[in-house]
């Protein structure tokens, strides 16, 4: 379980920092990717060698703050699977909670809630994710955050699978000169070895909307004030997933229109298409 959690953490990281994970053979027309190139409305990821595709649709509320994200998986089952997330915000657009729903073959298979708690200085101090036992195994996760001033230094994760909470790992954060997360060091309880993930960035603005917490486990990295300013160039680390971005095309205000990601040590690649207003 720990190994799969480590690998899925990297995949989630790549989804939120730069794009989705997979697929389709049909090419999207670059001319239809936007006019103003302001808000990101849709992101399509497609694998170079399969007939699968994932589409991310973004909806915004007052102040152009992300209010909903729908992820649709094509050609994974007889009908498209979907994962919907609704973001609820408080003072100043601060993310207070989110509700998630998942469907497979048109049937509801997942529900979940995440809650976010803050200190007097407005910094996130704890997040909690709850999955009821009605549609899944039922579990409750939580993370506690520690800072140096206003900069996140450590996140401590706890997890419960129908039993008492137990410590899962500690994550220590280091940053680039541009304040992007440059390195994350995971100290796992079981197994004991330490994982280190490293990231390199370009100088162009990250188009992914602030606040797309698609998995609370990575919440502090992708929460509004932790949103990476730039696009990831490559990732590497002790988990078995290394990804390099090998090709870019940008809009007239330097937002990504197209990317090609090469999976290191493999002929596999993923193409990403960004659509704006």
Topology:
Blueprint lengths: L1 H16 L22 E8 L5 E8 L5 E9 L6 E9 L5 E10 L2 E12 L5 E8 L7 E10 L2 E10 L5 E10 L5 E8 L5 E12 L13 H4 L7 E8 L5 E8 L5 E8 L5 E8 L1
Antiparallel strand pairs: 1-2, 1-16, 2-3, 3-4, 4-5, 5-6, 6-7, 7-8, 8-9, 9-10, 10-11, 11-12, 12-13, 13-14, 14-15, 15-16
Write structural notes for this entry:
The chain contains 2 helices and 16 strands. 7% of the residues lie in helices and 53% in strands. With 277 residues, the chain is mainly beta. Strand 9 and strand 10 form a beta hairpin. The protein is globular, with a radius of gyration of 18 Å. It has a single domain, classed as Beta Barrel (Porin), CATH 2.40.160.190.
Keywords, please?
277 residues; mainly beta; Porin; 16-stranded antiparallel β-barrel; 2 helices; globular; disordered N terminus
> What is the level-2 CATH architecture name?
Beta Barrel
Provide the structure class. Answer: mainly beta
How far apart the termini lie comes to: 41 Å
Number of domain units? 1
Order of strands across the main sheet: 1-2-3-4-5-6-7-8-9-10-11-12-13-14-15-16
Coarse shape: globular
- Helix percent band: under 10%
User: How many β-strand stretches?
Assistant: 16
Radius of gyration: 18 Å
CATH topology: Porin
Question: What is the structure about, briefly put?
Answer:
With 277 residues, the protein is mainly beta. The chain is built from 2 helices and 16 strands. It has a single domain, classed as Beta Barrel (Porin).
């Amino acid at each position: 379980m720990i190994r799969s959690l480590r690998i899925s953490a990297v995949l989630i990281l790549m989804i939120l920092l730069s794009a989705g994970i997979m697929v389709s053979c049909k090419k999207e027309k670059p001319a239809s990717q936007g006019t103003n190139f302001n808000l990101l409305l849709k992101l399509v990821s497609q694998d170079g060698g399969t007939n699968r595709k994932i589409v991310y649709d973004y909806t915004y509320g007052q102040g152009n703050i992300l209010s909903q994200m729908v992820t649709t998986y094509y050609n994974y089952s007889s009908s498209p699977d979907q994962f919907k997330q609704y973001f609820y915000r408080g003072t100043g657009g601060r993310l207070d909670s989110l509700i998630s729903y998942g469907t497979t073959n048109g049937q509801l298979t997942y529900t979940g809630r995440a809650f976010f708690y803050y200190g007097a200085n407005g910094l996130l101090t704890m997040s909690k994710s709850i999955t009821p036992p009605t549609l899944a195994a039922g579990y409750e996760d939580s993370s506690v955050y520690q800072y140096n001033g206003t900069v996140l230094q450590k996140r401590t994760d706890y997890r419960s699978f129908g039993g008492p909470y137990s410590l899962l790992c500690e994550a220590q954060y280091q940053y680039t000169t541009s304040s992007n997360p440059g390195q994350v060091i995971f100290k796992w309880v079981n197994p004991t070895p330490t994982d280190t993930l490293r990231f390199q960035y370009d100088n162009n603005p990250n188009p992914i909307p602030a606040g797309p917490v698609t998995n609370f486990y990575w919440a502090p990295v992708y929460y509004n004030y932790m949103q990476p300013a730039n696009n990831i160039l490559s990732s590497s680390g002790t988990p078995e997933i290394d990804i390099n971005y090998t090709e870019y095309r940008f809009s007239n205000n330097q937002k990504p229109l197209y990317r090609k990601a090469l999976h290191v040590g493999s002929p596999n690649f993923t193409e990403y298409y960004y659509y704006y207003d």
